[in-house]
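4.2 Preliminary Data

To establish feasibility before requesting continued support, the project team ran the inverse folding procedure on a target of 592 residues. The structure was first converted into the token representation described in Section 3, and no sequence information of any kind was made available to the design step. The complete token record follows.
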């Protein structure tokens, strides 16, 4: 009953030292040897002057660790981020000092906000050059302070094995997040006899339980509720808590909604599932049900303004809110009165399951009828469910449906911000539980989906996947199509093209008197650029064409790029509830 998407196994502790490790070698060799001993098999990055010794060490270990050369450090970080999400493991990225480090910050920001474990290894200028204004000199510790939870500088080669081990442990402990290890070039060149520290991180490394008295109170509140609901986030995936979440929902007769990061927290056909809630990708019935709930359980989610539709579902007062989070400091941050259940999601859900009073069959049937009605509620009138394409433009929701129907069940999907995110969140269908949908909602960075496709493909070798992007994001990340071509990755790219920065233009349409400014760049021929990068590409102007290309990809997975013209959001709005209110005359911008 509780079928889940197979996930890559957690990395097991290494049982032997890497073969053929000489007694005396450089710091760069010790660094790479320790990564291999820790089970790291893939490293994303871009070379630079200060990292030459690291690349020489990688050259000697190509049988043990694969280096994926990206075309930009921000993209390399996005690859490591998506690799970590898709494989439930630490993603590793390396860059060099100066521009490499500053570019990487943009990629780490998303991972930090989204709670993704990424290890950044960055080389630095020679220690003797500190303070001289050397080329590429920058205070890397200060630079990474806003996007990492742990940062260290290696001052000697002998420290490297232990520092790598500490970094990996820090990345997965508590709430996962990026960490940074900074290695000056003289340390990379320095001789050392330090040996790799065996062992690899397991995610999660610990599974703490919540206090028994808090569990008892939470079970009482949930058992007494007549309209209980659950809002699940990415913590469910990190804890692999899919089965216990659905069992608890069934025992309570509780609707299960997800944040965008929580997509897949329950099976696609779970009877209690109502889909995404909040202000990006939610359909009206799901938000309405969450607003009417008389007790809400938050599981592994920030539950920020976007996730809760500007604090309306659930409200910040008047409704009991119970929050499970691995980080005690985050419990109650957005809902100050919440009953705190600090601990591992799967462990605490099991505690609740043992403590709640299951409802009887008649009550379960009545609640299930209400949940299914909410899940089936249609989109707002401003968003008709279907409309035939006109002048070669396809409807974004119809594009998502056609692509989903034409690919095998549970095909991994990635979505960029803008048009892709709300449409994929609302209309992409899955069968099994598990994180097969990757959408960057930590910061919502444009240009994520193309490089992220590389990361997902490396985490799931040989598995075909689809990456939804848009013309604005394409312009930021199209160079990585060469990376896709170089590795012959089985990725179907679907680009929504409306010839504008559509999200911002829609905000100007609703909230600044339709004064459009800085949102209409020139058009780039995406098909020509993709072909120039070695990727087969086609312009698509009808649903029949789209269906035919998707079927062809399903039969012969390969790098394939489809450019699809879609209406502007002003003319055909995505499922963004605040915008429904805006079209109805509410001129107040939503609080994010």
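Position-by-position output of the design step:
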């Amino acid at each position: 009953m509780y079928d889940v998407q197979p996930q890559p196994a957690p990395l097991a502790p290494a049982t032997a030292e890497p073969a053929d490790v000489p007694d005396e070698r450089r710091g760069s060799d010790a660094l790479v040897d320790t990564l291999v001993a820790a089970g790291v098999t893939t490293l994303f990055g871009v070379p630079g002057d200060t990292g030459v010794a690291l690349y020489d060490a990688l050259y000697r270990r190509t049988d043990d660790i694969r280096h994926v050369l990206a075309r930009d450090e921000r993209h390399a970080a996005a690859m490591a981020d998506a690799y970590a999400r898709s494989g439930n493991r630490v993603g590793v990225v390396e860059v060099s000092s100066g521009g490499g480090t500053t570019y990487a910050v943009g990629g780490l920001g998303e991972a930090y906000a989204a709670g993704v474990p990424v290890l950044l290894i960055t080389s630095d200028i020679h220690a003797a050059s500190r303070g001289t204004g050397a080329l590429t000199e920058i205070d890397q510790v200060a630079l990474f302070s806003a996007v990492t939870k742990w940062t260290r500088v290696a001052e000697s080669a002998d420290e490297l094995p232990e520092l790598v081990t500490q970094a990996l442990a820090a990345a997965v402990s508590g709430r996962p997040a990026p960490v940074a290890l900074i290695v000056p070039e003289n340390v990379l060149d320095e001789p050392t006899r330090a040996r790799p520290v065996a062992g690899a991180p397991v995610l999660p490394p610990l599974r703490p339980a919540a206090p028994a008295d808090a569990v008892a109170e939470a079970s009482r509140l949930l058992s007494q509720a007549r309209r209980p609901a659950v809002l699940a986030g990415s913590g469910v995936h990190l804890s692999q808590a899919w089965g216990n979440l659905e069992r608890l929902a069934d025992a309570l007769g509780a609707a299960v909604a997800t944040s965008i990061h929580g997509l897949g927290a329950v099976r696609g056909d779970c009877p209690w599932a109502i889909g995404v809630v909040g202000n990006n990708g939610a359909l009206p019935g799901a938000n309405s049900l969450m607003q009417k709930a008389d007790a809400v359980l938050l599981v592994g989610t920030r539950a920020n303004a976007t996730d809760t539709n500007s604090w309306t579902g659930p409200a910040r007062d008047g409704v009991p809110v119970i929050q499970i989070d691995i980080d005690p400091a985050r419990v109650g941050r957005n809902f100050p009165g919440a009953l705190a259940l600090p601990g591992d999601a799967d462990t605490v859900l099991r505690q609740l399951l043992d403590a709640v009073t299951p409802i009887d069959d008649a009550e379960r049937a009545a609640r299930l009828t209400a949940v299914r009605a909410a899940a089936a509620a249609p989109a707002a009138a401003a968003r008709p469910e279907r409309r035939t394409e006109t002048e070669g433009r396809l409807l974004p929701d119809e594009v998502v449906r056609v692509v989903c129907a034409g690919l095998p069940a549970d095909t991994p999907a990635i979505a960029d911000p803008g048009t892709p995110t709300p449409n994929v969140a609302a209309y992409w269908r899955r069968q099994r539980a598990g994180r097969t949908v990757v959408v960057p909602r930590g910061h919502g960075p444009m240009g994520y989906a193309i490089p992220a496709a590389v990361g997902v493909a490396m985490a799931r070798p040989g598995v075909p996947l689809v990456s939804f992007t848009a013309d604005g994001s394409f312009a930021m990340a199209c160079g990585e199509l060469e990376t896709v071509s170089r590795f012959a990755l089985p990725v179907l790219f679907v680009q929504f093209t409306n010839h504008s920065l559509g999200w911002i233009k829609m905000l100007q349409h609703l909230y600044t008197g339709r004064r459009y400014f800085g949102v209409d760049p020139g058009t780039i021929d995406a098909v020509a650029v993709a072909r120039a990068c070695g990727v087969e590409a086609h312009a698509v102007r009808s649903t029949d064409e789209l269906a035919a290309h998707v079927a062809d990809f399903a039969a012969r997975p390969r790098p394939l790029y489809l450019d699809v013209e879609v209406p502007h959001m002003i003319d055909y709005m995505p499922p963004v509830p605040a915008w429904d209110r805006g079209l109805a005359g509410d001129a107040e911008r939503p609080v994010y």
